Amino acid sequence: MTGEEAILTLKTKLDKNDTASLPEIPVETAVLWLNDSFGRIIKQRYGGNNPKRESFEETQKRTDDLREVIKYEIIENPVEGFFVNSVKFDLPVDYWFAIVEQAEITLKDCKGADETDRVGITAVQHNNINTAVEKDPFWRPEGKDLLRIMQGKATTVFHAAATVVSKYYLGYIANDFKIDLTALDQQLKIADHLHMEIVDMAYNMILNAVESQRYQQDLLELSKSE
Questions:
Q1: Structural domain boundaries of the chain?
Q2: How far is it, in rounded angstroms, from Cα 115 to Cα 96?
Q3: Does pTM top 0.70 for this prediction?
Q4: Distance (Å, rounded) from C-alpha 119 to C-alpha 69?
């Protein structure tokens, strides 16, 4: 379904509504509602705030729901972090939610030679960093262990004193899915089976906005689409 087709489908559903209070929806407004619906659908599928309480990759359906909005990126040239033994990487401009993180590190092996490896990163809370700094053996990064926190438009990776972190490998949900008014002929940037769900959610949000009597009935039908 293209953006233009999504707008036409939404307008057709609204035209069939028997509520006289529904105004004519201009294209710009239709795109606004559809993009709002787009974002809500993605967040529901990612976080589990949906009728089935299933989050990303918990089932094959959830995996398929979001596979089209996943991106991978290698980020290089870190700068020194605010905290001791940390480096900071800028996040992609279209970053929304992290799904997998790794880093390339270099450290000395048992013979004193440089060893380069690619290892996973563990996400922690900010208060865990104090524990790591205080040398708690459970939280303190050792050797190939890496911890990370996020702040603003960057991620900070904590490492052992003798470890050098040079690259950040990030898999993430991208937020570049919005329908572009200047490119309505482009396909929606999400799995095909969600296209009508996006239109249906936008339709129900509009009904709610004008306090249509059919809203509760249509909302119940929408919940069954899961």
A1: 3-67+175-223, 71-174
A2: 33
A3: yes
A4: 24
